[in-house]
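Record pair follows.
FIRST:
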Amino acid sequence: MDIILDNWFLRKLFLLRKIYLSRTSMRHYSQYGEDDSTYQHLASIHRGFFVDVGCFHPVKYSNTYRWYRKGWRGVNIDLDPIKIEAFKMVRGKDENLVYAISKEGTGELRDCYSFGRYSLMSTLDKEFAEEQRRLGKRYVVRKVPVASLDYVLDNSRFSGRKIDLLNVDAEGYDLSVLESLSFEKYSPFLILVELHQHTIEKVMESDLYKFLVGKSYDLVNWTGPTLVFKRKAA
């Protein structure tokens, strides 16, 4: 039991501190400046549509907040309910949803293991969670719905709308998230996705790179661990 998270008033105070007292860059909101490095590709789009999977924080380290401020709207998805509560407090014009994204699923509940009140690490993998527990890290277990990205978007108010910016940060499950999306239906224009490789050769050997190239995307930028893919012109 966590007295802060379980008490409505204390939880709101905790979230206000987390949202507004966390440091952010004066130049950009993204952790590695992704919203600067992708600006040239997106600046001409008026009131675009984004999807942010593994959205984490409504402002700090966000690859979509800059566009929200410019009038874009979108769907923010995270498997940790406390993060989505923060999004609802700050970004109420978006659709903010608690889901774990998988290749398949229509909202069935599964156990989710979270480490800390506003953790960088949440997982559906019980073995991984137990390994972390043996290392001294405590977790809490919550039930979360599991669904494909197609299912989540099809049941949102943005159903069928082409995606201008897709951001994926799913802690090693990024390819599974992408595989759960119908590219024919949602056709993302720009995709930001993390891949922790150190050379272009390793990137090009990865299944993620090969998957997106096979979907007619070009790698147009690389900022920190974030790869930026752009859909080829028709």
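SECOND:
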Amino acid sequence: MATSKFFQHLPTVLLGIVVAVVLLLVLVTFQVSETECAVMTTLGNIEKKADLKPGLHFRWPYPFQRVYKFDRRLRCFEGNAGKLEETSTSDEQNILVGIFVEYRIADAEKFFVSLERVSEAEQRLNNWMRAARNATFGRYRFNQIVNVDAKEVKLAQIQKEMLDEIRRNAAPFGLEVEAVGINAFNMPSTISEEVFKRMIQERKSAAEKFLSTGALEAGKIRTAADKAKADLLTEAEAKAKTIRAEGDAEAARYYEVFKANPELAAFLRKLDSLRRIMQSRTTLVLDTGAAPFDLLNADAAKLGPRAR
């Protein structure tokens, strides 16, 4: 009878054992996720291997041992000091600059011992950001920050110097600073007009320089073109004189023939004139006694034997 009662309550007993085991495991184990880092203390003292890696770990139940977890993912922080704030350049020009930092908790033990809370860490970052910004911008001139010539701008170098300084300050506290950037930049209204005037003057000076260079080059081109023109004209005139001389020499031979027979010369000139006049359809009413139409007269046959 007792045995039957025991088996009758066996499921309840097993369920109770399972629940007790689960509760015991919950009390003596904990898990650290991939996005977390953690430290464990024993009676308030940090364990030697306090920086726990992701995975399942065992512990003594509270209050003997406690576990502190921190999110180790990258954070972007501007803070009060990171917002737009006035600073000065090396040439005593006031500017408004806003910066940000990207950081993570890299060493949970150092972070827990020195800071413990993220709010405390970001308060420290406020101070480091302000000090790094003022010191770094104070080493550069205004025209190395604002300039139309990209080669003169040193913003990338300024960001690197701020990163090195903030990273050096944050490392002993278990913080790893990945990047520092400038997210806002402005100028007080008192110097904005002066800056714009100076930029306009610089652009005018550059434009005048380009115009002067262009005028000089244009003068060189004109001079070269005039020289080439003069050379071509000289060469053409020389060739024309040569051709004219050759033509005169050739004409002289014909003139010798015409001198021997002037009537033939007159006849040929008249024929040439008629040929030019009659090239187009033209109706003329003229006296056949006038040259060169006297060739059309019957008396022109008298020139036949001489013409031949």
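COMMENT: Residues 2-71 form one domain.
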